[in-house]
Write a structure and sequence with these properties.
heterodimer, A: alpha/beta, five-stranded mixed beta barrel, 7 strands, globular, B: alpha/beta, four-stranded mixed β-sheet, 8 helices, 10 strands, about 25% strand
Amino acid sequence: MTAIRLQTPLESRELLELRAGDRVLLSGVVYTARDAAHQRMVEALDNQQPLPFDPIGQIIYYVGPTPGREGQAIGAAGPTTAGRMDSFAPRLIEVGLAGMIGKGTRSPRVVESMVEYGAVYFLAIGGAGALLGQTVRRAEIIAYPELGPEAVRLLVVEEMPLIVGIDAQGNDLYRLGPEEYLRSRRRDKSDA
Amino acid sequence: MRLIHTETVTEAVARLCREVNRRLSDPVRRILARARDEENWPLARHVLETILENDQVARRSGRPLCQDTGTILVHIDLGQEVHLIGAPLAEVVDAGVRQAYEEGTLRASMVASPLWRENTGDNTPAFLTIDLIPGDRFSLSLMAKGGGSENMSSLAMLKPADGLAGVVRFVVETVERAGPNACPPVVVGVGVGGTLEVAARLAKKALFRSPGQPNGHPNLALLERELLEAVNDLGIGPQGLGGRTTVLWVAVESAPCHIASLPVAVNLNCHSIRIGRAEL
């Protein structure tokens, strides 16, 4: 399996070509946000206030990283459970957010808005925080510093290893992966 | 009688907090490597390979394995012939946690109140359990327990008529419902019997057991093997993307219970189960 190289900001054409199960190496800027930051961003949209960054073509990474040691931009930076952001994600997708990075399943409502607006949900491997953190070249808090690990950060990443979890057609690897595996195992058993 | 100054506990706790967060233990590494070798589904193999590579990067760079550096659980088997001198155990344990987390490279993940949710800033308090044992040993085990897998854990008060089949069904359902959220391949700790809180504590005790070691009772060891087979038939696989390896091992602990009860607790842990031990 060779990996597809992507650079942010992402264009609609690139997003539509991705398929659930594709391996991706992502480079460029991504923004971090988790529960509390999402609440604030959606409040900002409700009050016609600007977001901390222009979401068009951009990706939000659901992560609360550990601080880096001397000489490290960041410490461990693995994904947190995306489902907790499900009630907020459609609002951000509507205003142009191109992708999300996290782990775990998404609600039908999120998948619907991904299909409608052509967004993609990428998976980072849960628990691979050291390896993912190593791909972060620069990290800078750009909003809500009082939220600590939950502040919004701009990360510059280089070849961050990801897997397409749910593509812009709505194909969901969490459903398809286990299904295909079980089918292949049944085939193996009937061959034997 | 043996005298132990409790300040030595602080040092041991701080050292274990630093260690368990930055490297897989050798037995866990071996079990993951074997799972990778036996996994023929390509994406599943890739995920297991990445988890092992993550350990290498953590060792090399000093980064934690995971950004969720856990709630600290400490269990002490305390010999009855030990005499402790100094500050109370709970305090010296917390002092060790504080020391390790205040260095700034482990994430403080504890809030003081579950409702008002202000971060304590130093990952305290730890949760301490003590068992009194014969003799003069002081054996300390420490676990950095992640929130994702704890959230997918579950407890049920079954009916005695539900029996063994009911217990198996509940364990399988819990792993299935957890799906990708507990960071599979997971470790499953099961506590059967006792009362509500005894079952939960047994499930945690099961997680504390040495990696892959079966229960000493042959019937329970057999149950562990049967449960492992049943959950690995689900096809959830590493990270929930499909594959053979949904669970690395199942550990069951049991206790007597009331004639009217059949409590069962299932405590899940992610693939990088982080436990360290110290003898004082």
